Amino acid sequence: MDTDFHFHEWAFLARTDAQAFERRRLRLLEAFLSEAGHRRPLLESLQREIDRERAAAAGPEAAVAAISGMMCNSFCTLLGELGTLRSELKRLHVFSDLAVASDAGGSEPSPASPGDATPSGSCMMSR
Q1: Among 85, 107, 120, 122, whose CB has the most other CB atoms within 10 angstroms?
Q2: Residue 104, pLDDT above cutoff 90
Q3: Residues 110/91, Cβ–Cβ less than 8 Å
Q4: What is the rounded distance in angstroms from the CA atom of residue 100 to the CA atom of residue 94?
Q5: In a 10 Å sphere around its CB, with 0-12 CB exposed, 13-18 middle and 19+ buried, how is residue 10 labelled?
Q6: In sequence order, what DSSP letters do the residues of the chain get, joined into one string?
Q7: pTM > 0.70: yes or no
Q8: Residue 101 near residue 108 (C-beta atoms within 8 A)
């Protein structure tokens, strides 16, 4: 199956034959999922979530907005996790610096502040 995405071809098919569009969409999704290996259950779960959003939406534009909101929320979660990782790495570096400072008889650096877990900037998206 051709897995290249040709927007105008898909758009034409969606306008002229919605059932053929849906059959082709499902075949392409299945082809993609069949190559996903151990990630397949996670991707199937994500696709079910996307399909629920599409079904609940008032129209295609609303579906795109809802799915985009899902992506933004996932990005915000990832950003928060990266901030937590950054804070933890800073904390570990401080402990490493403390060990080096105490071995060398130097002064101790101040520990990372609890606020370091929050990444700079705002990530507030609503669905």
Answers
A1: 85
A2: no
A3: no
A4: 10
A5: middle
A6: ------HHHHHHHHHH-HHHHHHHHHHHHHHHHHT-GGGHHHHHHHHHHHHHHHHHSSSHHHHHHHHHHHHHHHHHHHHHHHHHHHHHHHHHHHHHHHHHHHHHT-PPPPPPPGGGGSPSS------
A7: no
A8: yes
The Cβ-side half-sphere exposure at 86, using a 13 Å CA radius, reads 14
Place of tokens 């929050």: 118
Choice between 115 and 95, residue whose per-residue pLDDT is larger: 95
Neighbours of 53 (CB within 10 A): 19
- Looking up tokens 């995405």 gives 5
Q: Please, are residues 69 and 127 in contact by the beta-carbon 8 Å criterion? A: yes
The one-letter amino acid code at 126 reads S
Task: Look at the block and give the residue holding tokens 């610096």.
Answer: 97
Q: Which band of pLDDT confidence, cut at 50, 70 and 90, is reported for residue 93?
A: confident
